[in-house]
UniProtKB/TrEMBL annotation:
It comes from the Bacteria. Its main location: membrane. This is Sodium-dependent transporter. It is found in: Membrane.
Amino acid sequence: MVSTSREQFGSKLGFILAAAGSAVGIGNLVGFPVNAAKNGGAAFLILYAIFVFAICVPVMMAELAAGRASQRGPFGCYRHFADAKPWWHIGGLLAVITPFMIAVFYLVLTVWIFGYLAAIVSGNLSAMSDASFFGDFINGKILFLYVVFVAAFVGVTLHFGVQKGIERGAKIMMPTLFFMLIALVVFILFQEGAGAGVKYYLIPDFSKLTTEVVNGAMSQAFFSLSLGMGIMITYGSYMDKRESIPGSARLVALADTTVAFTAGLLVLPAIFAFNPNTNPDDLSSSSVSLIFTFLPKIFLAMQAAIGYFGASLVAALFFLLVLFAALTSLISIIEVPVCAAMDQFCITRNKALLVVGIAIIITSLACVVSFGMVPFFTEFTQYGGGVKSFFDLVIDVFYDTILPLNGALICIFVVYQWKKHNLDSELEQGDPEYKSSIMERYINFALGTFIPAILVLVFINTV
Ligand code: PHE
């Protein structure tokens, strides 16, 4: 039973900003630039862009179309089109568990970013270059308070629903994020020595494109566009039938890639201008260690040029930028289980939000205390030759591994279960020019053949 009163985005721009808000996250601002710089510069960029437009955009279109046609989030969408074939429920289940678990660790990351911002604003930038700062910080009791702040912000936004919450939040945060990013880039590019960073970022080196790098670029692109997480299915179910899905998907991908690219013009020149002796090959490719241990040192080094206050201001702006990017992503991912609960149990948004919110917060707390506070979660399990915390486990399974599998499943589901002609007619809605276009022919071929094959390969490679 499809309710006619399903919430909708109020405008095309609102949808684009919300979807781009989901896509632009921590991965774009820090992970992408450093990966690109280390793994072949412009060569990596070209590869990444090919993956985004040839593989990820079709998957995004499939997710949006399946969501809009079923008028349900991922769980309901799989059920709706599965014709009672029970094995597809696994896809639906994965499509709800995955965002739930990603929300859990993403909430923790967002809380840390919020904590760093608070520390910088209260004048503590200098303390951050101590080797022990991060370790002490992630074990601080104040984090529990920050969890409350971040969860309250996301909760209130989601309480207001699709138009007045998600869309309005994105309409405020995304343009602000963009202006902050540009302002920071301009400031950094005018610093002496910045050019070396730009060179390092962009000089192509095709010899670096090993199998591992190719695999990494594909995973990065997939994660960056918020695919395989049920987000685009959910957002698709809130899309107006008159809007063009192919056009919107391309715009969202373009915005996401542009932000990732632009962030490279900020992060690498900053590193080279303020720490010219850095050997970029030694930089960790983990966004976490970059954001929380390496970059604060770079910001502190700015005090020689612009004073402590100036350096703190730049650092605060940067962390605010990352915070906005993280919040819009967090909102989108928590909306998935909220929407699933509303669809499945026919309950109100507030009830769904309450239940899902409490479950996410409790599971997040298990992550928060898994850095030493509670031994049970700190030494949760063992694999890959080491003791792993609960937080490690969640990241390794849900962030690193499962997304491409979910992606392959949705492609196969859409093409072979829901069927191509239904996909076509959904995509033609709101975009008559799509009919019989090259894109339509390409997608009809690719979605049922090499795209899921590549995603399965990436999955196997990561496992
Ligand atoms: N593209 C997002 C990012 O880079 C992916 C994401 C979306 C992650 C939603 C978590 C939640 O961070």
